[in-house]
Each structure stands twice: as C-alpha cells, then as structure tokens.
Amino acid sequence: MTGTPQLGLRANLAQFSLLVAVNALVGGMLGQERVVLPLLAERTFHLTAYTGALTFILAFGLVKALTNFFAGTWSDRFGRKPVLVAGWLIGLPVPLLLIWAPTWGWVIAANVLLGVNQGLTWSTTVIMKIDLVGPARRGLAMGLNEAAGYVAVAATAMATGYLADAYGLRPAPFLLGVAYAALGLGLSTLVVRETRAHALQEAGTTHHGLTTRAVFTRTSFTEPALSSASQAGLVNNLNDGLAWGLFPILFTSHGLGLAKVGLLGALYPAVWGFTQLATGSLSDRIGRKWLIAGGMLLQAAALALVAVSTNFAGWIVAVTALGLGTAAVYPTLLAAVGDVAQPTWRARAVGVYRLWRDGGFAAGALLAGTIADLWGIPTAIWTVAAITAISGLVVTLRMYETHPRSFR
After folding, report:
1. Is residue 212 assigned to a domain?
2. CA-wise closest residue to 72 among 199, 191, 185, 182
3. Cis status, amide bond into 135, omega within 30 of 0
4. What average pLDDT does the segment 102-108 reach?
5. How many beta carbons lie within 10 A of that of residue 309, not counting itself?
6. Percent of the chain with pLDDT over 70
7. The pLDDT of residue 185
8. Domain for residue 33, yes or no?
9. Domain Major facilitator superfamily (MFS) profile, which positions (predicted)?
10. Domain range spanning residue 223?
C-alpha cells in the first residue's frame, strides 16, 4: 500500500472483510472443543473430579490471558501481521494433539498452544480492525469481529456435537480444526496486509505514548472506564468458563443425548455471535455504559435460570438469554477500551484488557470446578450468577460513558 492510509470501514472494506473471515477461523479453533472436550475428560480419560476435568480451561485461560498482553505490546513493536502469522503457526499442532492424545497431559499441552494461538490471532484481528475503521464506527467494527468469531464457535460446536454422535469423540470432530488452522495460516500469510500505519495516521502528532507499565496500571486500576471494563470482561469470561466446562456435563447428567447437548452448546454462542451485529452498532448510537451494565445483569439472570431448570426447554430459554446478555457486553467493552485509549498506546490497552478478560476463563474453571466438587454444579452456577450481578453493579456505579458523542 502506498500513500496516506485512509481510515473508515468503506475505505478499507476489502481488508476489513478479510479480517472478519480470518477471525471466524480463529473462533472455529475454539469451537472444536466446546462440546467434545468436557465429555472426553469424563468418558475417555475418566476424570471424576470437576476441578481435574476443567484443567484444560484453566491452562487455556492463563496462557491466553498472558498472550493477549504480549500480543498488544508486540503489535506496537513489530507490527500486527507478524504477530497474526505467528499465532497461526503455533495453532497448527492443536487439533492433531487432541486427536492423538494418549493421556490428559497431552490435552493440557494442546490447550496451552491453543491459548497462545487465540491470544495472538484474536487480539491482533481486534487491533487491526480498530486501526482500519477509525473512531466513528468502532462499535460496529467490534460487533462484526466478535460476531464472526462466535458464530464460528457456535457452528463448529454444533458440527462437532453431531460428528461425535455419529462417529465418536475422536478423531472426526477435530478434523475441522486441522482445516481451520491451515486456511487461517494461508490467508494471514498471503493476503492480510499490515495496518499499523493506520493507527499512526489516526494518532497524528497530538498524543504522546505511555510506558507499558503506565498502560497496565491505567487500564487495570486507575482509569475508571478502562478498569471497569477490565473487571466486567474478567467476570464475563468467568461465567463463560463455567458454561464451557460444566454445562455439557450438567445436560448429559439429566439424560440429554450428544446431539441435544451440541445444540445447547451451539445456541449460546450463536445467539451471542449473531446479536453482536446489532449491539456493536447500537453502542455507536446510544453509548457503551448501559449496554454493558444491562448485559451483565441479564447474564446473571440467565445463569440462575440454568441452575433451576431441569429440562431441554428451560435450558433453551436460559442459554438464549445468556447469549443475549453476552452480546450486549462483548463488543461494547472492546469499543469502550478503544474510545478511551489513545492510538499510540491502544494496542497495549487492548492487550491489558484482554489479559484480564481471558483470565476469567482460568478463574471460572478454578472457582466453578472447586465449588462443583464440594457442593455440586447448581451451587457453582448460583455462585457465578451472583458474581456476575455484582460486576454489573460495579459498572453502573463506577464507569462513565465513553462514546465520543458524549464529549461533544
């Protein structure tokens, strides 16, 4: 690309659309595990303790959280594209390890690599889209990005559920992951273009950069909107870690077959994914704060409904509501971080936010697994529902509206 980079969705539609497709492949890599892996832990590796069965989510969450932080820093230092390509290279062995794993340790190793893959690729596609669109359509951009990723999670979860039902838990469900990794690496290497110049164009000469330590402190603790977003992101993925690890076990314990479990496992991210197309754009019109607060409270109510339900129809309603609440929160939190962080340190702020957000996977696996072992799955779900409600109240009381229109 030559000349001055142009900001905006229309001016960068081809690259933006390509990055949406790449992020769908990133989501598919995650989706291959959503239904099958908790059941693999129980049925193939005979892990009876919930805490032990959820170690794959704990490993994934910790590694992804740390990788998010470095993805932002490396994107500022080396450029976005090299980080994206590196993420796909690291993701290539993941489905093969899951297919061939003779022990649970291999599954943990695969999820360490998956955490690095997701941290590098998903973080970088987020940063690149923010670079391209500029400030006016940031919510829409994040809605499209997260929708692509989580619709792919849903579609792959449903597909793997049916494949597992028809052909067994291995290898058929994970062959999808092999195809996703190969295609993602090819597109990222050959077709995706660097976008760091767009961020520098938006920054101009009006803003000074911050040290990485200052960005971490501001995003995590001192800046009210950024720190409120960080805690809400952590709690959001805490309840997603619960859903990923324990919902399939809960549903099968009530006699549901793998096809229905796959449908429930897909419905939640499908509603989440598709609805983000509306909520991201809506946040550009009405602002970020109340979508985030309302979404967290809706998630809390949905989790409570999961806990009290005992049949397929009740869980259909509950996971649909959980998906709607998550859709209100997920792209809006990223847009809020993009609103507040200046272009010169935005990539690092996104990395810090995603450090906290995806640390929620590990926190959810550890907390939910421990409580489920001591008092059962319903108690674990009630506990996480209460934490989610408190998080929504924190946003209500501490966060200010970040949308640029509020500054006019």
Report:
1. yes
2. 199
3. no
4. 95
5. 17
6. 96
7. 97
8. yes
9. 12-403
10. 13-196+208-402
Average pLDDT over residues 133-152: 83
Task: Give the tokens for residue 279.
Answer: 């909520």
pLDDT tens readout for residues 228-267: 999 999 999 999 989 988 999 899 999 998 888 888 988 9
Residue with tokens 């101009």: 204
Check: CB of residue 345 under 8 Å from CB of residue 218: no
Residue type at position 135 = P
Total count of domains within the chain: 1
- Mean pLDDT (the chain) is 90
What is the per-residue pLDDT across 14-53, written as a single tens digit (0 to 9) for each?
999 999 999 999 999 999 998 888 889 888 998 877 887 7
Q: How far apart are CA 30 and CA 127, in angstroms?
A: 19
According to the model, what pLDDT value does residue 197 have? 83
In this structure, the chain runs to a length of: 408
- Torsions phi, psi of 207, nearest 5? -125, 140
Tokens, residue 44: 């193939």
Describe the chain by its helix, strand, coil percentages, rounded to 5: 85, 0, 15
Is 360 within the bounds of a domain?
yes
326: closest CA among 275, 397, 277?
A: 275
User: Residue 29 sits in a domain of what CATH number?
Assistant: 1.20.1250.20
